[in-house]
Each structure stands twice: as structure tokens, then as C-alpha cells.
Amino acid sequence: MPQNGVFQPEMEEEEKSTDVVIVGAGVAGAALAYTLAKEGRRVHVIERDLSEPDRIVGELLQPGGYLKLIGLGLEDCANESIDAQKVFGYALYKDGKDTKLSYPLEQYSSDVAGRSFHNGRFIQRMREKATTLSNVKLEQGSVTTLIEEKGIVKGVIYKNKAGEEMRTYAPLTIVCDGCFSNLRKSLSDPKVMMHFQYWKIKHSLCIRLNHRRFFSFIRPTMFLLLLQVESPSCFVGLVLENCDLPHANHGHVILGDPSPILFYPISSTEIRCLVDVPGTKVTSVASGEMANYLRTVVAPQVPPQLYNAFMVAVEKGNIRSMQNKSMAANPVPTPGAILLGDSFNMRHPLTGGGMTVALSDIVLLRDLLRPLRDLNDAPALCNYLESFYTLRKPVSSTINTLASALYKVFCASPDPARQEMREACFGYLSLGGICSYGPVSLLSGLNPRPLHLFLHWRLMLPFPSPQRIWLGFRLILSASGIIFPIIKGEGVRQMFFPATVPAYYRSPPLH
Predict the structure, then answer these.
(1) CATH topology of domain 88-107+230-326
(2) At 284, phi and psi to the nearest 5?
């Protein structure tokens, strides 16, 4: 019977015909399936719903993410075939003023830019491409339980489309079932599962392995998540039709009250509007309260060029909402299984960094696994994977930290210090040059260097004024209260001193 979400088999496991089981076929799962199958792995992907997803987020891929897409050979999944649009930067609005922030793309080919699209079309295109490979099996089913044998995850139990209970085994199980992961909880109890897994592994392996090999086996290799999922706000989504953005091929960010409003193209005739609403709930859509909120509170803050199209979209009534989630990555050992994508690490979607982080993780995981032809060699597999969480930090921590910090700074506040900080941020980015290129290159994934993030600390502070010494002191305290907890959550050593973190490899091994 399953215990703590883990199934203990009572008989010998079946002969394996799969190298990797992937749970979930969203952006991360579909891209990973194609990538590992191209490397010659036999991949079994199980997705609860293979119909085209219909989401209001995951529609903007940063240039850094597009470069990873090229590296994976998936760039044709985000082109004209799904009516994807090129994005060259941001337009930032505050109190009737605006400034344009362009991506630093001069060193890249003309095709390199951000991409925006319908999330469902992008995912379906990647699923289709994955299934063109004969060693990919894509199946609709709902994974209910991990199969564990002697402390090691060996595969999963799932119900197929017909409702039959099935099992599939593989030496490596990768969970990519998104922000609402139904496996995360059973894998990540920080007080029970960590000790449970550790002692089961110890008792089952130390008899067969000498102590040196045993401790090598259970180093930080296959990790599972511990941190609690936070929900700082909700997005309310609308689609504006047949109108033009003030700055073509740019995402638009309005520093509204109480929080930001986003506009960006998702096709040649549609513009996505996302209204951020702080808190875990929004007013009722069915009762008309949300429509009234959009008319009276949000509409006056919309740029004039978009006002009429915004009001038409509100009157049409196709208003949707979803919770935004944030969750730092803080792994512990679990041999045989690994989490990836939004089931593993999330940040506020304001800056659209989620897909960039996921694709970057996939490139790194591919490169780490590439020299290892036999995934059944469990100790060797652990050695190759233990560096994953250190090597991913430059990209993930930079994007995560900037996304969380900018969201907090961009939100309105009655606190004069926070108001000054918001004004300072807008003023700093408006200066252009390195003041805009620097932060934009960080959030776009083009410059994944945490130390450069620290150099732009000035982004959150106004120029000092002798007449406002007390306010300046409060500003520093307020800014510190925003940025330092985020950095602490990401890991100070992992971000700024990765060489001090134990890792089997400091870079992906040569093939």
C-alpha cells in the first residue's frame, strides 16, 4: 500500500524498457522529453490532459530563454506557425510618463529576441515535436504514486485514460507536473520525509556498499523540494483585439495602483492584459464585481491608445483569473527522482522568467547526463546530478531575485519610503545606457550573473539628499527588507560563492 505517497512494491520489479519517466508534458516536460530522446534515451511522458492548455500566463519567453530553445533545437516551436510575436524590450509607464527599455541584442543574430504567443499553442507544438521521435511515448494519464524500492524511487503508478491502474519503471523519474504538483507534497515534508528517506537508504545500501561509496551515493544528488508555496497576488486576464500597442513589439508595464498592469502581444491581432491584484483572492467575476473594478480602478490607468480596446474587452466579459505563486528551490536528497519546472521553483511572473529558468535547467541537465550512457548505474547517476542545483544558481537566482524584488518595488504603498523607492526605480531605468541595459539583461536571462544584480542595488534607491537624511535611512532599511530576504531564500553561498558549495562537477563533464 502507498505510504506518504510512496508505493512499496512487494514483488520483483518488471523488466524496464524506459530510461526516464517524465511526469507532466507542459513547457518543461515536453521540452525535456524531446531533449533527452534526442540524446538516445527512452522516454515515457505521462500527462494528465493532452488537450491544448488554455492559460493566461506562460506567454512571454525572454531572449535568454529563446537562446536556450535554440540550443535544444526547439526554436521552430515559437515561430510563425503559432503566430508568435517578437519582443524587443519593455515600455515602462508611471504617472503619465513612459520610458522604453530595449533588450541588449546587438551581439546576437537578427532572429534572437523575446517571443510572445498563446501558451497552449506553444506547448502543443512542442508535444508534437517530441512525438516525432520514436523513443518518446506520450500518454494521457494521472500519476498517483511514486514507486519506491529500498529507499530509491523506481517509477510511478498512474491511471491511464481508460481509468486502469498502470505502472512504469525507470532509473530516473523527473516530476514536471507544474505549480499545482500533486507529487510535491508527498516528496517534500521537511521533518518526516528527509529522515525517512535517509535512514531507509542507509539501511538498504550500507550493507552492499562500503561507507565511502554510500556517502557518495546520498550526497545532494536527487533532490526534492521543501519550501512552502506563497501566493503574493492574482492575475486577472483579458484579451484586447485589433489594436496597436504604443510601442510595437514591446511588453508594457504600468506601475499602477495598487500594483502593476501588463500588456503584451500574444498573436498578430491579440494583446494580453494582465491586471495584478494583491492577495490570494479576487472579487467575483460572475457577480460583475470584477468588471466594475476594472472599469473604475484599472481603466483610468490604462494608456490612452489602449483604453477603448480595454473597455470593449471588459464589456465582452471574458475575464479570467489565476493565482501567482512563488517558491524558492531548497532541495534535499531523494535518489531516483528529481523535480523540475514550476513543481520545483517558481517566482512572481511579472518579469516572465519562468520558462527561461526551466529551459536553462533542461540544457544543464542534458549536459550533465550526456556522458552517462547507463542510467541504471545509480551511484554514477548521483555523481553526475549532484552538481545540478549548484550549477543552476547563476541563472535561476538572478531571475528569481529580480522578479520578486521588482514586484515589491513596483507595487504602490502608503509608506513614503516605498513611494520614493518606486519613483527611484522608474527614474533609474529611465536614465538609459547601463542603467537600463544592466537590469534588463539580468531579467531577460542574457546576463545570469548574481554579482551584477548586486551592482544594480542603486535601482531601488533615489539619489541622496541632505534634506532627507531620515527618509534616506528608512529607504535603505526598506530596500534591505525587500532584497536581502529574497537573496537569503535563494542562498547567499549558492548565489555569490558557488565555489564554496560541495559539488561533484563544477561544469558539465565533457562528452
Answers:
(1) D-Amino Acid Oxidase; Chain A, domain 2 (3.30.9)
(2) -65, 130
Collect contacts of 155-161 with beta carbons under 8 A, ≥24 apart: 155/13, 155/18, 155/21, 156/21, 156/23, 156/46, 157/2, 157/7, 158/46
Residue with cell 523519474: 173
Task: Give CA–CA dist 404/325, Å, rounded.
Answer: 11
Which DSSP symbol is given to 480? H
What's the rounded Cα separation, in Å, for the pair 431 and 481?
Answer: 25
Q: Where are the domains of the chain?
A: 2-73+121-228+327-386, 88-107+230-326, 396-496
Rounded Cα gap, residues 97 and 469, in angstroms = 27
- Please tell me the distance from the alpha carbon of residue 354 to that of residue 378, in angstroms, as a whole number: 30
Walking along the chain (511 residues) 10 residues at a time, the average pLDDT comes out as 49 64 98 97 97 95 97 97 98 95 94 97 98 98 92 92 96 93 69 37 39 38 53 95 96 97 98 96 93 97 97 96 87 79 92 96 94 84 78 87 88 86 86 85 85 59 52 54 68 73 70 61
Q: Coil, strand, or helix at residue 146?
A: strand
How far, in Å, CA of 98 to CA of 380, rounded?
A: 54
CA 101 → CA 247, 344, 354, 437, 440, distances in Å?
A: 11, 31, 20, 7, 7
Please count the CA atoms within 13 angstroms of the CA of 299 that sit on its side-chain side: 17
Instruction: Compute the distance between CA of residue 130 and CA of residue 133 in angstroms, rounded to an integer.
Output: 6
- Burial class of residue 404 (count of CB atoms within 10 Å of its CB; 0-12, 13-18, 19+): buried
- DSSP state, 430? H
- Alpha-carbon span 273 to 276, nearest angstrom: 10
pTM listed for this prediction: 0.86
CATH 3.50.50.60 fits 2-73+121-228+327-386, yes or no: yes
Q: Are 462 and 420 in contact (CB under 8 A)?
A: yes
Count Cβ atoms below 10 Å from residue 112 Cβ, excluding itself.
Answer: 18
